[in-house]
Amino acid sequence: GDSVTQMEGPVTLSEEAFLTINCTYTATGYPSLFWYVQYPGEGLQLLLKATKADDKGSNKGFEATYRKETTSFHLEKGSVQVSDSAVYFCAPSFQDGQNFVFGPGTRLSVLP
Amino acid sequence: GAGVSQSPRYKVAKRGQDVALRCDPISGHVSLFWYQQALGQGPEFLTYFQNEAQLDKSGLPSDRFFAERPEGSVSTLKIQRTQQEDSAVYLCASSLDVIGSYEQYFGPGTRLTVT
After folding, report:
1. In chain A, what residues touch B40 (CB-CB under 8 Å)?
2. What torsion do the CA atoms of B112, A38, A100, B1 make, to the nearest 10 degrees?
3. In terms of pLDDT, which residue wins out, A97 or A31?
4. What is the bridge-based pairing of β-strands B53-56 and B65-68?
5. In the Cβ-directed half-sphere of B36, how many Cα atoms lie within 13 Å?
6. Of residues A94, A103, A104, nearest to B100 (C-beta)
7. In the prediction, which pLDDT does A27 show?
8. Mean pLDDT of the region A87-107
9. A112 vs chain B: nearest CA distance in angstroms?
């Protein structure tokens, strides 16, 4: 069935380090792909999305590219900040109506 | 404008009690979703509505869970005879449509603790 696999955390980085959080999915079709972020004490909010192959979503310095050939949507940021400390969720939305399937989340801690 | 709101934010229930959790979606959003998020896990889908119609309830864990959205706006998730394993954060989200490319907007959640 349709599923998502996300890099396990926690991830601890120093400020200005490079970040990659891996996400791969298994699907019979072509889902839309989302990254959601949950800051401490706050609700889930959309970080970025891509709806078709080779699309790149970007926001707040984060980027992710929809790679159909590798069924991946890895999240990257060139220089993380302390304020990026949060839990990040990869969430494909499968077009057969199953809605979002969230990954387990990756907790990121950025140290000054 | 106002986002998705949920009430109460925190609920403590004794085992066996019934609880009702409320969700006010963004005005005009057609679709409404309920998720259950256990500690340290990602949200898991429970059910969704398109307007007042409950189109998928496959994620509801047992017949003790019931959701409604009678007028296509506010929704209530009811849990009867609560059990300890029901302890979790219950998230509500709304969307302009159910089609996959539309963003879901999440409320802050209701943290339910069953003692």
Report:
1. 104-105
2. 90
3. A31
4. unpaired
5. 20
6. A94
7. 82
8. 81
9. 24
Residue A10 in contact with residue A107, Cβ under 8 Å? yes
pLDDT recorded at residue A99: 66
Residue of chain A minimizing CA distance to B106: A44
Residue A95 has pLDDT above 70, yes or no: no
Identify the contact set of chain B against chain A, taking CB-CB distances under 8 A.
4, 33, 35, 40-45, 48, 55-56, 91, 93, 98-101, 103-109
Nearest alpha carbon to residue B93 among B40, B46, B41, B39: B46
Residues B15-67: tens digit of each pLDDT: 999 999 999 999 999 999 999 999 888 999 999 899 999 998 989 999 999 99
Whether residues B100 and A95 touch (CB distance < 8 A) is answered with yes
